[in-house]
Amino acid sequence: MSEVSVTKDAGGSAPATDELVVLEGVNKHFGALHVLQDIDLTISRGEVVVVIGPSGSGKSTLCRTINRLETVDSGHISIDGRPLPQEGKELARLRSDVGMVFQSFNLFAHKTVLENVTLGQVKVRKTDKQEAEGKARTLLDRVGVGNQADKYPAQLSGGQQQRVAIARALAMDPKVMLFDEPTSALDPEMINEVLEVMQQLARDGMTMVVVTHEMGFARSAANRVVFMADGRIVEESAPEQFFSNPRSDRAKDFLSKILHH
Amino acid sequence: MNVLLDNLALFREGFLGTLSLTAVSAVLALVLGLVIAGFRVSPVPPLRIFGTLWVTVLRNTPLTLLFLVAFFVVPKVLFPGINSFVLAVCACGFYTSAFIAEAIRSGINTVPMGQAEAARAIGMSFTQTMRIVVLPQATRAVVPPLSSLLIALTKNTAIAGAFDNVDLFNIQKTLSNDGYDIAMIFVWITIGYLIITYAINGLFRLLENRLEVAR
């Protein structure tokens, strides 16, 4: 890992009570399915929140509502004190402050790795091209794929692609990073290289919302575990407490299925 | 005696008429088609409705009917004294734009949803997402149907010839009035059309090969 750290916003050292992402009474339906039911969730600056739960519980949808890739039917979402605007320039600006990492990487297939990481800086932030390239190379080195800069995404392994995707998000100097099952599409031997990058980010103080099935990551990197089932937040607690002594039956049932087999 | 050699100037005028009508209509149709395809996938509902209406109306109206409207209604009601070439370009261009919009939209649909999501997630606007991320990846899928549509456009311009626009089809009337063998007239006119359509064919094949190499 290189010495260069990502520039964080000035509020990075603010007290932990500083609320960065706030969801209040959020509801969403997919047709008849009530996928998010009265979700209240507050994420503080610098906090790492891991969202876990059975598939179909609404965790990915929750993650995607935070930068409005999914719209909500009711409720309020605000980021850094500002409510999420309607589709348009305002929303685009807000999204540029929220990094997102997808399950299927979604690197721009027709652009090289380097271009993937410079594109947002140049087109959205209007950064000078050379400066953007310098920053992109630093970030690619930091996630360990610096020597792949001139290749196309399809030439990289899944783990490498996902690390490029993390670099692409970091290049925008986001206030918060959203990870939507970042390791679920990876071969087992590549999961760790991605998790290590995420661990490092967490140690550097990045605010993170991570939807994942990696319980090891939840234990070691999370400040808080949010357990979702059937569109509701069933339980929220510190990881040690959640894994050793879950309060709800639903969480006990879930953990018994994934931890002892 | 030879219909072509005796009337070279007229053939040239007709050929250039068809060529210019095709070229200008094609540019208009491509630009409009791109815009309308953008409207049809836009997040703004009024634009989507406009795009759908445009495609529905123009795609489902016979081109001859459009020409009748263009040549007999538009000059009477809206723009008296308007140039017949402009009217023909509008009729052909608008009509073809509806088909091109759908071809481009089908190309857009071949690009995985995640590409556009990733672009929006880093803060790109809708137009940036389209221009920088989606359309470049859609091009490969759009090229083959576009070539068919432009060839169809070339042949459709013949209707303008029936409306007193000087083109390959139109000169046939003059020549048969002069007493030349109608079969020979059509042979040469057909060759004129073939030159244009074959050129379009070759151009798009070149484009397709170029895009093949790029990825």
How would you explain this protein's 3D organization?
- The complex is a heterodimer of chains A (261) and B (215).
- Chain A has helices at residues 59-66, 89-96, 113-123, 129-142, 158-170, 188-203, 215-221, 239-244, 249-259, and strands at residues 19-30, 33-44, 48-52, 74-79, 82-83, 98-101, 176-180, 207-211, 224-229, 232-237.
- The longest helix of chain A has 16 residues, at 188-203.
- The radius of gyration of chain A is 18 Å and the shape is globular.
- Chain A is built from nine helices and ten strands.
- Chain B has 215 residues and is mostly helical.
- Chain B has one domain: MetI-like (MetI-like fold).
- Chain B has ten helices and no strands.
- Chain B has helices at residues 3-6, 8-40, 45-60, 63-77, 84-110, 113-121, 126-156, 158-162, 168-177, 182-214.
- In chain B, helix 2 (8-40) runs antiparallel to helix 3, helix 2 runs antiparallel to helix 9 and helix 4 packs across helix 5 (84-110).
- The model of chain B has no long low-confidence stretch (mean pLDDT 93).
- Chains A and B meet through helix 2, strand 6, helix 3 and helix 5 of A and helix 6 and helix 7 of B.
- Chain A: Its EC number is 7.4.2.1.
- Chain A: It is a peripheral membrane protein.
- Chain A: It comes from Streptomyces cacaoi.
- Chain A: It catalyses: a polar amino acid(out) + ATP + H2O = a polar amino acid(in) + ADP + phosphate + H(+).
Supply database-style keywords.
A: 261 residues; alpha/beta; Rossmann fold; 6-stranded mixed β-sheet; disordered N terminus; B: 215 residues; 0% strand; amino-acid transport (chain B); AA_ABC_transptr_permease_3TM (chain B); Amino acid ABC transporter permease (chain B)
Give me the secondary-structure category of chain B.
mainly alpha
- Going by helix content, strand content and strand pairing, the class of chain A is alpha/beta
Could you tell me how far the N terminus lies from the C terminus of chain B, measured between alpha carbons in angstroms? 55 Å
Task: Write the CATH architecture name of chain B.
Answer: Orthogonal Bundle
**Which shape of chain A, going by the Cα principal axes?**
globular
Largest interface: A-B, 30 and 22 residues
What is the element string of chain B, with H for helices and E for strands? HHHHHHHHHH
Q: What are the segments of chain B in which pLDDT stays under 50 over at least 5 consecutive residues?
A: none
Organism (chain B): Streptomyces cacaoi
Subcellular location (chain B): Cell membrane
Keywords (chain B): Amino-acid transport, Cell membrane, Membrane, Transmembrane, Transmembrane helix, Transport
Domain ABC transmembrane type-1 (chain B): 15-204
